[in-house]
Design a protein that fits this description.
Blueprint (H helix, E strand, L loop, with lengths): L1 E2 L2 H8 L1 H18 L5 E6 L2 E5 L6 H16 L10 E7 L6 H17 L5 E5 L5
Parallel strand pairs: 4-5
Antiparallel strand pairs: 1-4, 2-3
């Protein structure tokens, strides 16, 4: 996932405010995911969450919708902030790098669809 139009935040409000936005997005993510999930800042304004255990598409939809809402519902530093999310769900064992590529492709699709959205790719959709 990444913060939508983050460069505009930095350019308009400065890097100090941009850092505060990243910190608050991080806090909201951390407070939304389970203790057994892994959430990390991947770089710049990008984040990765690895969900622990088996999850189905219905549960994933609920989790991603909750993440979108938790970020966009309350302003950060008086700025409307949204995120776009790409997710990959597979019932097969695959290389982590391959899963990241699929999730990144899904993220790109979320951005092309207007941002503040999530897209889920599954191994069934890739066939």
């Amino acid at each position: 996932m990444d913060i939508d139009f983050f460069k505009k935040v930095n350019d308009t409000y400065g890097h100090q405010v941009g850092d505060l936005v990243i910190a608050e997005v991080s806090n909201r993510i951390r407070n939304t995911i389970r203790k057994t999930d892994v959430g990390v800042r991947w770089g710049g304004e990008e984040f990765v969450i690895l969900l622990d255990g088996v999850i189905n598409i219905s549960d994933l939809n609920v989790k991603l919708e909750k993440l979108l809402k938790i970020i966009s519902d309350k302003k950060i530093e008086d700025i409307n902030v949204t995120i776009s999310i790409g997710a990959f769900l597979s019932s097969n064992s695959i290389m982590l790098s391959e899963a990241f590529k699929y999730a990144d492709d899904a993220l790109y699709q979320s951005k092309m669809a207007g941002r503040n959205k999530y897209t889920i790719f599954t191994d069934e959709k890739l066939k």
